[in-house]
Amino acid sequence: MSGNRLKLYGLLVLLYVLHNDWWFWNDARIRFGLPMGLLYHVVYMLATAVVMYLLVTRAWPHHLEIDDCGDDR
Amino acid sequence: MTLAIIAVYMAVVVSIGAFSHRLFQRTGEDYFLATRSIGPFLLLMSLFGTNMTAFALLGASGEAYHAGIGVFGFMPAISGLVIPAIFFFIGTRAWAIGKRHGYVTQVQFFRDRWESNSLGLLLFVVLVGLVIPYLLIGVMAGGLTLNQVTGGDIPEWVGGLVICIVVLTYVTFGGLRGTAWVNTFQTIVFMVLGAATVFVVFRNMGGVGAVMSRIGAEAPELLVREGNFSPLRWLTYSLIPLSPAMFPHMFMHWLSAKRMENFRLTVMVYPLCIAAVWLPPVLLGIAGRLDFPGLVGGQSNSILVRMITLHAPEFLAGLLGAGVFAAVMSSLDSQVLSLGTMFTQDIVRHYGRSDGLTDRQQILSGRLFVGGILAFTYTLFLFSNRSIFDLATWSFTGFAALIPIAIGALFWRRSTKQGATACVGTVIVLWSYFFYQGWDDRTYTVGGSGVMAVAVILAASSVAMVVVSLLTSPPADEHINRFIAPPAG
Fold first, then answer.
1. Which of B260, B221, B319 is nearest to B8 (CA)?
2. C or N: which end of chain B has fewer Cβ atoms within 10 Å?
3. What is the rounded CA–CA span in Å between residue A71 and residue A63?
């Protein structure tokens, strides 16, 4: 498995851990019109979309697509 | 006017299903899988629409009414990570194997992977049993919505019946192609309407910031998670989004893709779609505490409709009703079609006729089962009264706890049919036990510890899968090579 692929899988694990934002658990401050806990998870989802983009562009399982081409013939 | 808008919407949906019938090739594979021809955008919309249910719209707003902002992080945020990862790691592999071996259902794959009829039958019973409550959620939401947007003039049993009839009509006409087309239309409808609704309601209330400030003064507990979620419950609930890995309808949609690269768009965009759909109902649910304080338990599932009725013009209430119907039907259709397909392929075709079924007989069988399942679900609905959110959680718990067999089948050469059977058996026993324990307690966690039942069941089913597999003999290497590439060298 390539180093890049491993790093991306590591990012998935990191995101899973960061979902547990216990540091904002009791924070009721309003920022940009939203409470901190809600704003954090909106930003979290944007970050997730970026990681998914990287996963698709840099770690796509091309070996499975070869199987598909074989069957199409 | 509200009823007229909903009626027009229903007519459009049925027309799309009927129109898709023009492309129908009259083969079993076309009815059940659209001849594996679905492109990237349709795949995204149908996978997303199938996964977003009344659970997202009514359940989320109702839950946010009681538990505040945490609802957004609790379910959608972690789903935005876990579900696309499932598509990436499991969906792509299931698609490749399904295409190579001509599978139509999950049960066919697992039965073949471990060469076991009895395991296939056991899985069939468990999967059907877990989908039924999920179906029920949709019918309940349809009834509730029509009742609310008409000010109680139309009883809930009528709304549930309308949903069942419309879904039956277009699924019968269009099969999976019709379902994918209708899902695409409906997903766009409920995404656009969600955003429009939040805009209209919050503008009427003085803006999001003003509403949050008022909440801070009148119901400050909604702006934090302290007191609403325990950290342990938060952590263990994050296992629930593993459930789509084992949804029968999800598996069918994966197999319908024309190429594996068609999954790319879905994996990339899915987190954004979830955020776009879940944020509006969560915000509206919280804001609902200002206008409708004092709702108890499942009463809060109607908060979205109440807010629209209060703050928006009547035509938007009608559109919202249509939007909720869209969310409901875009899941219900795939679920009933997948069950109809399973009954046809895994029971009638596998056990019934030794000379096989013709395409015409397969399609007829699929349609009859779709009708039968909807009739059964509607009957259950008439006698049910549970919170939408709770019902979904129990269904998802069972599916999530079965994920070790998907991982074992696709990644672990040493897995065996005995291991998979032990895994399924463990889920049956523990799920039944915890369901019985938590039936009357909507905040149930194991022994009051904060640990969700899904964590315990998943841990036990994983151990059962691994230990029993290691104690028994795996299939021959040549057989496993059909599903998992042999190790390099």
1. B319
2. C
3. 13
Place of tokens 């409808």: B189
Nearest to B430 by CA among B409, B452, B413, B414: B452
CA distances from B308 to B52, B53, B55 (A): 20, 19, 18
The DSSP element (H or E) to which B18 belongs, if any, is: helix B2-20
Average pLDDT over residues B346-363: 77
Kind of pairing, strands A30-31 and A34-35?
A: antiparallel
Residue B52: strand, helix, or coil: coil
What is the residue extent of each domain of chain B?
A: 2-386
| Residues of chain A neighbouring B88 (CB-CB closer than 8 A) | 52, 55-56
Is residue A71 predicted with pLDDT exceeding 70?
A: no
How many contiguous H segments (helices) and E segments (strands) does chain B have?
23, 0
**CA–CA separation, B378 vs A44, rounded Å?**
39
Residue B117 — pLDDT band, cuts 50, 70, 90? very high
Give the residue from A14, A26, A41 with the most B CB atoms within 10 Å of its CB, the best one to mutate: A41
pLDDT on residue B374: 87
Which residues in chain A are contacts of B270 at CB distance < 8 A?
52
CA distance B484 to B3: 53
Please name the amino acid found at residue B402. L
Rounded CA separation B352/B348 (Å)? 5
B211: nearest CA partner in chain A: A33
- pLDDT for res B17: 78
Mutation target vs B (from A64, A66, A69, A73; most B CBs, 10 A cutoff): A64
In angstroms, the separation between the Cα of residue B209 and the nearest Cα of chain A is: 4
Name the CATH topology of B2-386. Sodium/glucose cotransporter (1.20.1730)
Can you tell me the distance from the alpha carbon of B225 to that of A21, in angstroms, rounded to the nearest whole number? 10
Q: B96 and A64: CB-CB below 8 Å? A: yes
How many whole angstroms separate alpha carbon B155 and alpha carbon B2? 15
Q: Tokens 């070790």 — which residue?
A: B404
Looking at chain B from residue 402 to 431, which residues have their Cβ under 8 Å from any Cβ of chain A? none
Residue B373 to chain A, least CA–CA distance (Å): 34
Q: Is the pLDDT of residue B297 over 60?
A: yes
Helices B156-204/B303-311 angle, 10° precision = 60
Tokens of B221: 């507990």
Could you tell me the pLDDT band of residue B124, with boundaries at 50, 70 and 90?
Answer: very high
Q: CB distance B72–A12 less than 8 Å?
A: no
Enumerate the β-bridge partners of residue A34.
Answer: A31
